[in-house]
TrEMBL record:
Protein name: Thioredoxin
Phylogenetic placement of the source organism: Bacteria, Bacillati, Bacillota, Clostridia, Eubacteriales
Organism: Proteinivorax hydrogeniformans
Family from the record: Belongs to the thioredoxin family.
InterPro entries, per database record: Thioredoxin, Thioredoxin-like_sf, Thioredoxin_CS, Thioredoxin_domain
Annotated PROSITE patterns: THIOREDOXIN_1, THIOREDOXIN_2
An annotated GO BP: cell redox homeostasis
The keyword Ribosomal protein appears for this protein: no
Gene behind this protein: trxA
GO cellular component, one term: cytosol
Site (Contributes to redox potential value): 32-33
Amino acid sequence: MSVENVKSSNFDQEVLQNDKPVLVDFYADWCGPCKMLAPVIDEVATEYEGKVKIVKVNVDENQDLAGEYGVMSIPTLVFFKNGEAVDNVGGFMPKKQLTAKIEENI
């Protein structure tokens, strides 16, 4: 399953109005740790399909969203529940750490 890219134009619909918990990966194409995290995110998206929606936001193309959610460094993962940002974590993390963080937030 590929992780969908979300933009400012469809962020409300895809993230804030979603009835499932949503994990948003704020990233940039030039970011080394983001590239390392991408396959982990893809793997986790497949495992949690139906339970958690996982999307990516390119901070270069959507600076307004990065600013709104206080993204100061990338990658930053922000967890949303019922339209609210409930948790966030920055930097690369191994799959085991990421799945533990997801379990905390669903």
